[in-house]
Amino acid sequence: METPPPSLAPPRWVFNRIIAAGGDIGPRYEASLYGPTNSLLTSYFPIIREFMVKPQGKIRPEFVNDIDPNVRASFDSYHAEVLPRVFQGSELGVKIPDFIVVKATESKDNDKVLLLVEIKPADRLVQYAVEQLAGYLEAFANKFHQETEEPLFDVIYGLLVVGRQVQLLTLPINGELGLSGLLDVKSARLDAFLRTIAVNNW
């Protein structure tokens, strides 16, 4: 594994833009934070290292068919079996976080999920947002690689952006959800959180 460059952290303007968009009351539109958050993520997870930031990627429920041989499963981009889109009701249970950060490959169905990101304006109830993001993490915990039948990850991470603050989530596959308090977007803890995920998958 090559040593990551020291310039992983984004430039100052990115943080200032998140602070400006977040405000004390929150942006009029949640989407005001999408662009700055995407810039934050691509700074830590550069395309040159085969990272990919997926906007509004779908998390489809795992599909296990032991009954009907006429129903063939599809594979999502993490090589887990899911119900085909053509099957009636295939959109039921689909979860859509604002961003999914993956370690990508040339194959369309072999991405390694690393980080899920959800964005909320500052005036939203934080506990609701945490529960929503935790539900996304748990949805991945219920997926298994189709060939190896192994879990898709050892640990998966979540980043909740609430106005100008953030909250960090960690879910080990065999452990309980870890949750930080609300942190300033410029905090050293956020930098260490994102940097560690990137370095461990560099």
Described by strand count, sense and barrel closure, the largest sheet is: 7 strands, mixed
Which CATH class applies here? Alpha Beta
What is the mean pLDDT?
82
Helix/strand order, N-terminal first: HHEEEEEHEEEEH
Q: Please state the structural category.
A: alpha+beta
CATH level 3 topology: tt1808, chain A
| Count of alpha and pi helical runs | 4
Q: Which strand-content bin applies to the residues?
A: 15-25%
CATH architecture: Alpha-Beta Complex
Radius of gyration: 17 Å
Helix content: 25-40%
Count of separate structural domains = 1
Shape: globular
Alpha-carbon distance between the two ends = 6 Å
Distinctive features:
single chain, about 200 residues, alpha+beta, tt1808, chain A, 7-stranded mixed sheet, two-stranded antiparallel sheet, 4 helices, globular
Give structural notes.
The chain has four helices and nine strands, in the order H-H-E-E-E-E-E-H-E-E-E-E-H. It is of the alpha+beta class and 202 residues long. It has a single domain, classed as tt1808, chain A. Helix 1 packs antiparallel against helix 2. The chain is globular, with a radius of gyration of 17 Å. It starts with 11 loop residues before the first helix and ends with a helix.
